Amino acid sequence: MLNNENSCALPxxxxxxxxxxxxxxxxDDTIRSVSGILKQLGDPSRLKIFWLLCHCEExxxxxxxxxxxxxxxxxxxxxxxxxxxxxTSRREGKEMYYKAADTEMANSLHLTIESIADxxxxx
Amino acid sequence: MLNNENSCALPxxxxxxxxxxxxxxxxDDTIRSVSGILKQLGDPSRLKIFWLLCHCEExxxxxxxxxxxxxxxxxxxxxxxxxxxxxTSRREGKEMYYKAADTEMANSLHLTIESIADxxxxx
DNA sequence: AAAACAATTTAAAGATTATTTAATTGTTAA
DNA sequence: TTAACAATTAAATAATCTTTAAATTGTTTT
Lengths: 123, 123
What we know:
The structure is a homodimer. In chain A, strands 1-3-2 form a three-stranded antiparallel beta sheet. Chain A has helices spanning about 20-25, 30-40, 45-55, 60-65, 70-85, 105-120, and strands at about 60, 85-90, 95-100.
């Protein structure tokens, strides 16, 4: 058993619970997965797009117009958001419509965003 | 009044509520602020450090040992987390001790992280 | 005061990511 | 089937960020 109180792998011994904490630590895969999701919304352009798509369904050129970005840039971010499972798309004629995914993850992140906005910018 | 139903600034008119949504859109400052916070935890190294510091107080070399990083790298990430207000520090002798800030923001983000981990990695 | 330890800073390298422009694909309407 | 519009892709550039190695600062102990 590694990282227990006897093997004493840590340079210093401080807290009593620190080896228990290390044992409960999320795996690298979990860390990567969670940070991968949060990274999506850590970019202001994508956060703006995601917020918008939480509130209405829109086509690419409208998203570009609303967010002051070019279509290719929007397309790039939409692709990332979609492959993270945060948004979905459908085609109708010439246009692609995007909206926030109807999932626990997307809904939960939407709430988190509003909450952070309230806490950090209490206007 | 810009972006109302008459000025018709959008290339296409789709949803009925889209101009209402645009009017309610968070300011660029708010978007930057929220994405700035989320970006902190969008990096796997910082997420790991923050998770650890949500569960115990630790000194820099222990954090480095636990996360398999060098001290300078840890120091760099600690500085970013601290200037975002997510962690605090205190000196005791030669060592600097870090832990998660006791704020609504830090607590809320901790819950969000655990929630995302549960949703995306249901082990 | 010197030596040892802990942490930070700096500068540079390496890696990743965002944006732009141009070209291309897909769909509809003339 | 050609023209027009919407969206994506590709290549290149620009910008940002992470990590490393070396040097420096701060604190304690001998």
